[in-house]
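testing teh design pipeline on a random one, pls ignore if ur not involved
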């Protein structure tokens, strides 16, 4: 199963900081067999050439109806000619998008961002606008298999479950004409709680067992409890990174997370989602990714 391992693009943060181009890294990893890529929002992305294009897209979205923008996204990926570009209000920008799409051919791109979905929102209208924009970006990246993932890195303390569930239900109801998978990831909260809220809110779960472990190796909740309760139909993605007392590692190896047990769970239950590598960033992320894949295949 690990021969189909993909990546989360924040592993490129140091290389992009040193001047590498997002699109070049995307092509390089694709050539090396990493075909599933989750485009993770963050400063590293916004500071890249692709991040500049994303900012232009976000501004241009306001000039199109939801239906028109969806049609443009479909044309960018499915049209055999470039005639659709001349029918837009931003032909230069959409030419850049068309070039990016050609480079991404054969890849499955999804979109992920940090968002405090576990907390009450002061401005519902503004909150909706952020999610709608994110959904449109997710659709543009892969109309055939669009997916948006949220991770809450801000909310701490006691969780108002009703508020979190209401947020997820509201998010899933937005932009229904854009078909996509909507997911949340366990972060500061236990995987058990995140799974419970995701199911109640109509979302899928992206599972990262590494996030379950604290710095001393103890778990927010025993992984065994999670695996005894989760159904594969509730999972859309599983992230792979390793953690020890020193923090998240740049390559998958021995540490707190038992990857062999995870793979056995997934295989025995016919898991159909993707597997994404999320190592700590270095200036040689492809070597780290190749070594990590080799380690996982060896299991």
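output:
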């Amino acid at each position: 199963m690990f021969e189909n391992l993909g990546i989360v693009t924040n592993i490129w943060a140091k290389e992009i900081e040193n001047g590498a181009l997002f699109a070049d890294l995307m092509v390089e990893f694709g050539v090396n067999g990493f075909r599933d890529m989750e485009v993770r929002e963050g400063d590293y992305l916004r500071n890249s050439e692709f991040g500049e294009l994303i900012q232009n897209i976000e501004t241009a979205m306001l000039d199109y109806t939801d239906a028109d923008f969806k049609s443009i996204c479909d044309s960018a990926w499915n049209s055999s000619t470039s005639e659709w570009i001349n029918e837009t209000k931003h032909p230069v920008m959409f030419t850049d998008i068309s070039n990016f799409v050609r480079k991404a051919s054969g890849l499955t791109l999804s979109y992920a961002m940090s968002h405090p979905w576990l907390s009450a929102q002061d401005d519902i209208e503004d909150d909706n606008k952020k999610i709608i924009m994110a959904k449109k970006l997710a659709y543009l990246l892969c109309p055939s298999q669009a997916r948006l993932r949220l991770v809450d890195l801000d909310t701490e303390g006691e969780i108002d479950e009703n508020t979190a569930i209401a947020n997820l239900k509201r998010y899933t109801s937005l932009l229904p004409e854009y078909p996509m998978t909507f997911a949340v990831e366990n972060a500061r909260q236990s995987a058990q709680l995140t799974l419970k809220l995701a199911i109640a809110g109509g979302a899928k779960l992206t599972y990262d067992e590494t996030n379950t472990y604290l710095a001393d190796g103890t778990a927010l909740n025993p992984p065994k409890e999670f695996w005894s309760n989760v159904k594969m139909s509730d999972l859309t993605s599983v992230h792979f990174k390793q953690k020890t007392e020193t923090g998240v590692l740049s390559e998958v190896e021995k540490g707190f997370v038992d990857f062999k047990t995870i793979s056995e769970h997934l295989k025995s239950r016919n898991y159909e989602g993707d597997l994404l590598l999320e190592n700590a960033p270095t200036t040689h992320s492809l070597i780290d990714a190749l070594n990590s894949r080799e380690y996982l295949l060896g299991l």
